[in-house]
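User: Show me an example of a complex going from sequences to structure tokens.

Assistant: Sure. Here are the input components:
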Amino acid sequence: MAPDYNMMELMICVASRYLEDGKTVAVGTGAPCAAAMLAQKTRSPDLVILFEAGGVAPQLPQMPISVGDSRTFHRAVMAAGMAEMMTTCARGLVDYAFLGGAQIDKYGNINSTVAGDYYRPKVRFPGSGGANDFASMCWRTMIMTVHSRARFVEKCDFVTSPGYLTGVGAREAAGLPEGGPHKIITDLAVMGFDDKTKAMMIESLHPGVDVDKVQGETGFELVVPQEIGHTDPPHAEELRILRDEVDPLRVVIGRA
Amino acid sequence: MRVLDEGINSLFMDPDPDKAREFFRRKPRAMVDKRMSEKEAVERFVPDGCYFASGGFGTNRIPNAILHEIVRQRRKDLGFLGWSATHNFEVLAAGKVLNRVDAAYIVGLEARGLSPNARRYMESGAVQVTEWTNYALSARLKAAAEGVSFAIIRSMLGTDTFKMSAAKIIECPFTGQRYVALPALWPDVAAIHVHEADMFGNSVIRGISMTDLELARAAKHLIITAERVVNNSVIRENPTATSIPFYLVDAVVEVPYGSYPGNMPYLYFSDEEHLTKWMKVEKNPEEFEEFLDHYIFGVPDFQEYLERCGGLKRIEELQKLENLVES
């Protein structure tokens, strides 16, 4: 019998499978951190977790609340600073980073700065933080988010962090290093980007979801390839580790 | 050098390295007792209109006694270095002490959500903003710490974050590579909370350093708040541990539990209940005013704030949390 799971658990399990063993990942708090911890405890024991404020390869005793709190360098190999992390990205040593935001467009550009007009904002959000730096300088960025038309928009009110900017060749023209968004993992599907155009493309549908549902919750036209995969739902062992070892207090998985 | 593009927002601070050198030429180097109260430190080194920077990372190792004192003394028209700023920004926004911010991360408290009052404050138009990234602001401080007028980085390119900054795009004379050039930033004054300092300001930080080592070297004036003041011989026994030398420091303020309600590595964890209380009460401006009267304006100093938050009994609970002791 297939195990029961909620959408947050599904997203975390799916995200964790993309984090290959022996690679480096810069994570924030919440779901991305849970995905990285789950990856370490399943397929990728030698995944190196990095935190923006300076924590290098901690043995996380529990989920951090802040990317600079004590847990982020608990039994770490080094307690460094932000410049060490960011220059490590600049040198090409960071494989994955997770990003979040209020809006994302079809080229994977992200807004986490303002809603509405810049000088008279409806909502002032925090701004880039380190997100633009990670999106510019890591090899592959990943996004975990709820899928809705409010979030997946034709045009971001403000491009805080770069995806593929205006499409194929735009990052290179701007002077950005090779990189860009790799996978977008939502509660409906996993999306990647079309090689020819760098536009967002459906890759796999979660159980019980069809293309119309995903397109209906997206404010721009998604690329729909001939063959679409079906997301492998969480395995019983993944769920056990996620619930018992990664997030026993249900800080993240309890939010779904 | 040819400028290929430039951001359109304001540059708040002069990046001239010789003006900075002239300031540091006159900065006293004497190894003298710099201990004082947070009240005196703010009176002497944080005047109205100055550009202020807070050390730490939002709710981690923040100089909260100085932040409260700035609000209590009702400073106005301050500039602020808003990177990785969470609770520290929330406190300054509560006092409405700012008029300009270099912003990389403001108004949010990471996974805890957005501060309702800080949002209202920033959406009111009372504060002028220029956008950057966390790394950009750290690189601006690093340039200042190196005594040069600009730094180069490879982020911000192609985005509105660049457009709404005061950065410029230049071309490498060797490779033709495009870089974002960032003006050096010498804040007028910074406050950094450390684990230990001696009376002269020699300081020891345990755990991650965030951007504090660059900040300490870029700031014209530096206020150190310390969990405890130690004898100079303690510093001399293990000079490898010193990351901020005395000649950078203007004031030493002993503030046990000075990062509260933030986290202090190895000592005490953040008080999430109290941080939640801030966010909750901020929803109602009148209630928030009473809250500020009770916790900031109505107390003489930070120690009394700690008392009103539960004093040593609460701190002991946070010490257990920090050290992962089962309760």
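The lines above are the inputs; the final block is the predicted structure for all two components together. The longest helix of chain B spans residues 285-297.
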